[in-house]
Amino acid sequence: MLRHDASSPAQKRIAVGLLGRGITESLSPVMHEQEGRRLGLAYTYHLIDFDQLGLADAQLPAVLDAARRLGFAGCNVTYPFKQTVLPLLTVLSPEAAGIGAVNSVVFTNGRSTGHNTDCWGFAESFRLGLGAVPMSRVLQIGSGGAGAAVAVALLQLGVGALDVFDTEPERARQLAERLRGRFAVDVNAVDEPSAAVSSASGVVNATPVGMDKYPGTPIDPALLEARQWVADVVYFPRETALIQQARARGCRVLPGGGMAVYQAVRAFELFSGIRPDGAAMTATFRHAAGV
């Protein structure tokens, strides 16, 4: 499952993977591999889908170690492993430690370093995709691995107040407490998202709800108003039901594709040591996604 193809000795060989569940539609392989080819690298990107392979969550340490022993440059990490991977790593980058979640692991000299490129990826997508929108108060749904990174990005972008809802209330409370300790901003865990929607300038879905594997919407779209903006981190399907219904209600929307591209731009540089062309990777994503 973790083999990679032989290549010309003249080419720098790089093998990386993505660890997660329900990832068969991920466009990370095509973005990474095409940019690798453009740069003259023998670059292979493997989807290691625990669902498809019938692997238990408890096998994450063994799979991560196998990738390291096989000479992988590193691995991206996605749902549901962005936080459970933390104790398996040698060291965390300052950003990953501050966020409390990892989406990129780099192997170097037998050591594994955890990074988080989701935070910058979401922020860059937000700046380019939504620009100047009202940010006095934002409701975020989800406080897991992706949610922690998105929350930090929102606070760095200048949100005035952040309400966080999670189906695991204690997790939302812990994230809110941690962020209040880092940012001089009102961050609250809310017990019921419906009431928080009405006072929000914008709403962000940072849960897997909306993926093909987890259909539906994280809130009732009927609560949304045209004055609000809505962002999602899910990008397969390319537009979730939340994004489609928010647009139909007149909201400005930000699908998850931009975050997927820009986190990949940062991850590519971590894995290869070479700065990629973000515009080229964006074009690759759009072509593959048919947008």
UniProtKB/TrEMBL annotation:
InterPro entries, alphabetized: Aminoacid_DH-like_N_sf (IPR046346), NAD(P)-bd_dom_sf (IPR036291), SDH_C (IPR041121), Shikimate_DH-bd_N (IPR013708), Shikimate_DH_fam (IPR022893)
EC number: 1.1.1.25
Reaction equations catalysed: shikimate + NADP(+) = 3-dehydroshikimate + NADPH + H(+)
CDD domains: NAD_bind_Shikimate_DH
GO terms under biological process: amino acid biosynthetic process; aromatic amino acid family biosynthetic process; chorismate biosynthetic process; shikimate metabolic process
Entry function: Involved in the biosynthesis of the chorismate, which leads to the biosynthesis of aromatic amino acids. Catalyzes the reversible NADPH linked reduction of 3-dehydroshikimate (DHSA) to yield shikimate (SA).
Similarity comment: family membership: Belongs to the shikimate dehydrogenase family.
Identification of the protein by name: Shikimate dehydrogenase (NADP(+))
Species of provenance: Devosia limi DSM 17137
Gene that this polypeptide is encoded by: aroE
